Amino acid sequence: MRIIVAFLIPTAILAYILGLIDPGLWAKAGLNISRFIPLLGVRNDLWGDALTAVYETLIISVFGVSSGVLIAYLLAPLASPLLAPRTIAIAGRILANSARTVPAILWAILFVILVGPGAKAGALALAIYTSTYLAKFFYEALESVDRELLDSLKAMGLRGYTLAFALYTHIRRQIISSVLFMLEYNVRTASILGFVGAGGVGYYILQYLDILDYQAALTFVIAAIAIVAAIDTTSYTLRTRI
Amino acid sequence: MLAPTQNLVVELRGVAFSYGDKRVLNGVDLEISYGEAIAIMGRSGAGKTTILKIIAGLLKPEKGVIRILGCDPSNKCFDSVRGRIAYIPQTLGLVEGGSAIYNVLLARAYEKPLRFITGIWGKEYISKALEALEAVGLLEKARVRVERLSGGERQRVAIARAIFQGAPVILADEPVSNLDLETARDVVELLTGLRKRGATIVAVMHDRDLAQRHFDRVYILEGGVLRVLS
Fold first, then answer.
1. Which of A180, A242, B33, B151 is the most exposed place for a label (fewest CB within 10 A)?
2. A152·B88 Cβ contact <8 A
3. Which residue intervals of chain A bear CATH 1.10.3720.10?
4. Is B117 close to A172, i.e. CB distance below 8 A?
């Protein structure tokens, strides 16, 4: 009960500050919904285009994960003081952590400027974004290994990447779980990267919203939801079986 | 097996070590010659593991003289000694997710990092690793992941790794804890049998009977110093 009260009070105060406690606002919202619903529907002639857009989203997401894993695999040992000299580890960690604070959509804007609009920009944005997140997951997993295992491998003379690759085998479950989590995340993110011109299903949704063709937009939204749900379910099933 | 250049393989003189304010080693003297097997006994927290880690070059003592295969672990020459020491911790230091042969081959990752990372070891290394597994009776389980092996079998993998490593110094921390009596005896026989291959063995033991029966000397660690028990 205390937790509910503790969250209820700030929620109410902030809702007031944001102007959400306004009967006029909700009356207007209700009116808008009643106007909007009759406009909804799907356009069956666009399912082919929607599937192509979803396929592009999937390609962007999987490229983001696969290239992100490669970069993170090499970056994570450099960001861990257990495996790299302290100064390099601190520099590596600052680099990975500061890059991670940049949202995927901003990376997408940057790459649209650099390589032009389309799937290329989205794929590169997700590659950078995924690698910074996975680098964090990986170096934290590397640092969680049993100290005695580390001592044993170090006593045999293993250092740097050789040691890291041995430890990667040991933490493979955490690695697979992190990679699947990022795949789920990327499919969701790639669906909106098109809003800034970085390819995928989001690009089409935005184009149809601009010309007020809500039925076409909804067709693409349904296709996006279907692929996100399919990837989420598959990934969740795989993660629970690891 | 690589033979040490001097007859004394392990030499500790007046070694002291503390964890914070707690001094655990207070003038440890130990000399072990080529091909000897010695056991160290003592209460939990007495500092037995600390001695093994100091010999392995994993911990630096506050004071004292240390020479492992003729080299002080704080000197540059110890780089060549690394890879010639097999340290088997209580949890065995096996990489889970890797097969028995993967864990054995790991012992040469230090000198062949590219072969290890690519996984392309070549016939010569594979056959030697299989020989090591055969020596501990695990040839048919070479491709089985270590987490699927029994406690005794995992101990054998750790010993096979030391054999493949060709380590002249083998440090084993409580190698028979959590094993039944018969398996414990087999493991100790295997471990001390490595003397025939030219290895020097230092093991932390709790079973006095097993230690006295199979090791050349048994020490007890009390009050931070070692004294000969038998």
1. A242
2. yes
3. 42-241
4. no
